Amino acid sequence: MSNRRAEWTEGGSDNSAGGAGSVPSVNTQGAAAGHANGGARQGSQKHIEKVVLHYLKRKGYRGAENALRSDAKLIGQESTLGDLAQAFPGSEVGSDASVPNWILFYNESEEGNPDAYNQSYGELRRWIDSSLDVYKHELYAASYPVFVHSYLDLLMRGLSGKATEFMKRYGSDHIVHHGKVIAVLKTLTTKAHAEENALSRLYRDNKYGIRMTRVGFELLLAFLQDHHYTLLMRTVNQHLNIRTVDGGAAVSSEADADVGITGHTQSQLDHFNGQDIALGSVPLDPFVRDEVERTLQGEAGRMVKDATAKEASELLDTFAKVRQENAASALSADDAMPMPPPRGVEVAQQIADLKALRKRVKLGPAALPSICMYTLHNTSSSLTCATVSDDLSLMAGGFSESYVKIWSLKNEPLRGFVGTINPMSINSEEDVDSIREKTSEPYRKLVGHSGAVFGLDISFDSKYLISCSEDKTTRLWSLDTYTNVVCYKGHNYPVWDVAFSPQGFYFATASHDRTARLWSCDHVHALRIFAGHLADVNCVRFHPNSKYVVTGSCDKSVRLWDVQRGSCVRVFTGHTGSVDTVAISPDGRIMASAGEDQTISVWDLGSGRRMDTLTGHTGPVYSLAFSQEGTLLLSGSADETVRSWDIKRSSSASEHPI
Questions:
Q1: Contact 532, 501 (CB under 8 A)
Q2: Closest CA to 518 of 477, 557, 564, 583
Q3: Cα–Cα distance between 240 and 226 in angstroms, integer?
């Protein structure tokens, strides 16, 4: 399933920094100190003053320009740095030159020297290798964007041979954490490639986030300044967004230091993750509450006390506890998502949930879950996605041949209704059976898409199935008639994933066009467009209260969106590869994400902080799911294993040791 997504898409806004913000202080005497005679010294001094005059004029500092022209009695046009390069011998710019002059001369006169990149970056890596272990993780993380921009700079200057040599020498240093990006960069061999490639533009148009300790950051700057590595200094200044963490604690891993490209500054990320969010449960509908109580009371009040009446009485007690817990944690009426009027199916579903709740066992090391596994034969590489209904009665699979196939897990015939149903003619089960199709097959094939089917989901009541495809559309299928009901269009590129809300009325889609969208079953146009990711949105899931949507992207980030406002309220960074799957615990407090970096990150939605990183898989992780009581997390990986993780939350809202 990993080959279904494009590698990268075009980046966002331009965050690169260019010119200086104030007039620099330039020591015009230092560069001329090596001249043997006064005439040469005076000539060199005039050259430098004209270069400074050229700089001031180019930057628009009119007052400083006029003052320098008057004080130095400069007549005629200003000089360029090319003129200065010809005026100075090669040994002139050396240890005696002042740092400002050296930077001014080097940046525009010698930065095209390809050996400067190899030498300076090589020395940087050797220095990191010999540095203290406590700072190595963050320094290695900071060296990665420096490497990328050094390589791209060589390509942009037309030095393809030197760029290839640079990649061969240092590219292997970053394969472990950034193998996919390195593989793409290796395919860029010319200036035209660097200008046109979406990944290259993403890196050149956005700053790369790095998390470092203050000591580690100061050590890096001191090294670059002491060795006069101005090319690397410029890269750090223009293309890195470094956030120093509070306290003296070291960054524990390279993944923890690597924030990546988010399209936002750290202050903006702090603002996102500092917003108040409502994670409470969905308030119980008054109609459903009254109908459930009336139904259970009717069964419990039978004259003959049979097993059904006893069970109903126990369910009433359980329902009273559920109501009490719901009242304590439910959203307010203003915060809750608007829903259509409830139907009878919600009452039956609530009673079924109560019965399941009474039988539920808290899973863990002492109570492992039972496992039922299914194998789909003869699918080869054509099966792209699969899902199972909440009542475990149906399984659906999407195929690259543009169709959806549904199987009955109870091995019962899937017989749809034929023609139009007249309710007045239905008086018994036999009447219902008579208007169904005459088939004995426990599977059905749904045909309608014109491209590979990449995502599927079944509604909570098993009445509808939603599918998304390479053909840019999403289709709603009736599981009563096994026909296509609605075709939703709006995305401009293939749609990678789709998910129903827990109540089934809304659904969300994720696409190659870098957006996720919110839909309702009764509207053919999207209700909300969630835009902010810098690359493909690979996966999407609803929060249990339907108020929020979680998305994972190729830009290595996960975002939490407010459905009603359409705005981003959390940004989770730290993955070193594409995020391919996300899951939210049933209580709505914890979110897990995983993908190509072979790790699972567990997040506290309330604070926006990562609680833990689960490692063990040796291949990309493509699926995650929480158990019903939220104590176990299951993960499926391309390493051909399914793992069960024990998740135990502490009493603290922000600390959840695992």
A1: no
A2: 564
A3: 20
- What are the tokens at 184? 């793409």
Calculate the CA 576 to chain-centre distance. 10
Distances in Å between the Cα of 15 and the Cα atoms of 145, 207, 622 are 15, 6, 32
Q: Compute CA distances 537 → 495, 510, 580, whole Å.
A: 9, 5, 9
Pairing of strands 567-573, 557-562: antiparallel
Cα gap 399→378, rounded to integer Å: 12
| 375, 475, 560 from 443: Cα distances, Å | 15, 19, 37
**What is the token pair recorded at 388?**
């199972």
C-alpha dihedral (578, 581, 586, 588), degrees to nearest 10: 30
- H runs (alpha helix) in 371-515: 429-434
For the segment 543-593, what is each residue's pLDDT rounded down to a tens digit?
A: 999 999 999 999 899 999 999 989 999 999 888 889 999 999 988 999 999
Of residues 92, 142, 146, 90, the one with CA closest to residue 118 = 146
C-alpha distances in angstroms, 180 versus 30, 166, 248, 384, 614? 47, 18, 33, 21, 21
Q: How do residues 180-220 score in pLDDT, each as one tens digit?
A: 889 999 999 999 999 999 889 888 888 888 888 888 888 89
Of 608, 525, 532, whose CA–CA distance to 567 is shortest?
A: 532
Instruction: Output the CA angle 634-640-641, nearest 5 degrees.
Output: 35
Is the pLDDT confidence value at 423 over 50?
yes
Report the C-alpha gap between 52 and 83 in whole angstroms.
12
C-alpha span between 309 and 296 (Å, rounded)? 8
How many C-beta atoms surround the C-beta of residue 267 within 10 A?
Answer: 10
Assigned token pair, 136: 């190595």
The alpha carbon of residue 540 and the mean position of all alpha carbons in its chain are separated, in whole angstroms, by 10
3-state secondary structure of 452: coil
Contact between 623 and 644 under an 8 Å Cβ cutoff? The reply is no
Instruction: Identify each DSSP E strand in 537-589 by its residue range.
Output: 537-542, 548-553, 557-562, 567-573, 579-584
Q: Which residues pair with 76 in a beta bridge?
A: none
C-alpha angle 325-326-328 in degrees, rounded to nearest 5: 65
Mapping DSSP to helix (H, G, I), strand (E, B) and coil, where does residue 522 land?
Answer: coil
Question: pLDDT tens digit string along 372-383?
Answer: 888 888 887 899
* Burial (CB count within 10 angstroms: exposed 0-12, middle 13-18, buried 19+), residue 380: exposed
Q: Is the pLDDT of residue 55 over 70?
A: no
Distance CA 235, CA 151 (A): 11
Distances (CA, A) of 522 to 20, 91, 485: 55, 77, 11
Between the CA of residue 460 and those of 111, 237, 463, what are the distances in Å? Answer: 62, 51, 8
**Cα–Cα dist 614/385, whole Å:** 24
| Cβ partners under 8 Å of residue 331, min gap 6 | 278, 280, 281, 282, 283, 545, 547
Determine the 3-state secondary structure of 596 from DSSP: coil
Q: Which long-range contacts (CB under 8 A, 24 or more apart) does 36-40 make?
A: none
Tokens of 262: 């988010």
Q: Give the integer Cα–Cα distance in Å for 407 and 264.
A: 45
Q: Give the whole-angstrom CA distance, residue 535 versus residue 512.
A: 7
Radius of gyration from C-alpha coordinates of the chain: 32
Backbone angles phi, psi at 87, to 5 degrees: -75, -25
According to DSSP, the β-strands at 240-244 and 208-212 are: parallel
Contact between residue 384 and residue 398 where contact means Cβ atoms under 8 Å apart: yes
Structure tokens, 132: 């203290």
Residue 70 burial (CB count, 10 A): 9
